[in-house]
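User: Here's a structure from my thesis project, written as structure tokens. My advisor, Dr. K., wants to see whether a designed sequence matches the one we expressed. Can you design one independently, without my sequence as a hint?
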């Protein structure tokens, strides 16, 4: 059975020692993957990796958490020994830099881009930062509209504003290819609003985590599990976000793209359907959104 991990970062520093092994391990298990850029250099590197493998694609974009001047470099993402500036690395989104990357034949989407209001590094002015995130998100949407690619949206604690920006673009007949809300953790109403705009919802290993007692719904499920149970399979994709968010029972370890199998199995269990059905329908959704075949 084939499956596709629609969002991972297999070209990050976390796989510096064994990236090719990790990719091969996933491909051997029938898991294809899309490796997602978060800055100009990781976007470039992702494309280089995708060039080398059939069944590997990439996206290019600037993650909303990389805009604040005080943001810390994530050692999992880039090698701190290779950068002079360790703690004050930031990037201003320059469409001129990203346009040629977006036109690469292995580039299947723009992102991850979006809004992350969850956490602002110390020393950042949250209001100024939010405004910068909104402007940067719009610049990504413009690029996606221009090159005719879908967007991969990272949205945390900001669904209302994120939906507002999406609507701005849809009202102008832009974002023709729509996109996906990656690592979705919002409410059913928020998910529904994205679906109404023609977007897909993507589910990570968080769906395998048992809810804490206080977060447990009457059904015994977590909020995310309940959302997944209720949403039509036609609106869902699966992703690992590797190296982060390793599913149970390996929570806390370095994640790998083949773990998307564990996530699809959990979705099958929650929805009371077969793993094959989850794989088949989410594959179709991914093929259609990203314009790929496998
Ligand atoms: Zn993300
Ligand atoms: Zn990610």
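Assistant: Designed independently from the structure alone:
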């Amino acid at each position: 059975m084939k499956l596709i991990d629609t969002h991972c970062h297999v070209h990050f520093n976390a796989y510096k020692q064994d990236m090719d092994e990790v990719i091969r391990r996933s491909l051997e298990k029938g898991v294809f993957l899309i490796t997602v850029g978060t800055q100009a250099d990781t976007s470039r590197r992702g494309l280089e990796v995708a060039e080398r493998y059939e069944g590997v694609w990439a996206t290019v974009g600037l993650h909303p958490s990389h805009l604040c001047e005080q943001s810390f470099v994530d050692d999992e993402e880039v090698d701190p020994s290779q950068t002079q500036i360790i703690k004050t690395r930031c990037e201003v989104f320059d469409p001129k830099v990203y346009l040629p990357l977006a036109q690469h034949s292995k580039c299947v989407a723009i992102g991850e881009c979006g809004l992350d209001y969850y956490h602002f590094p110390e020393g950042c002015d949250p209001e100024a930062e939010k405004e910068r995130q909104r402007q940067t998100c719009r610049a990504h949407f413009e690029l996606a509209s221009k090159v005719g690619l879908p967007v991969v949206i990272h949205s945390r604690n900001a669904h209302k504003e994120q939906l507002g920006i999406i609507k701005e673009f849809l009202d102008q007949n832009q974002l023709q290819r729509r996109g996906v809300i990656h690592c979705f953790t919002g409410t059913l109403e928020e998910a529904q609003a994205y679906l109404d705009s023609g977007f897909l919802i993507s589910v990570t290993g968080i769906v395998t985590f048992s809810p804490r007692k206080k977060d447990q719904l009457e059904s015994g499920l977590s909020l995310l599990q309940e959302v997944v149970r209720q949403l039509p399979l036609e609106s869902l994709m699966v992703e690992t976000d590797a190296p982060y968010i390793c599913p149970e029972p390996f929570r806390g370890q370095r994640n790998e793209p083949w773990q998307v199998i564990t996530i699809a199995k959990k979705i099958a269990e929650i929805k009371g359907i077969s793993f094959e059905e989850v794989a088949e329908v989410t594959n179709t959704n991914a093929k259609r959104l990203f314009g790929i075949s496998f």
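When you compare it with your expressed construct, this may help: The domain at 3-290 is CATH 3.20.20.140 (TIM Barrel).
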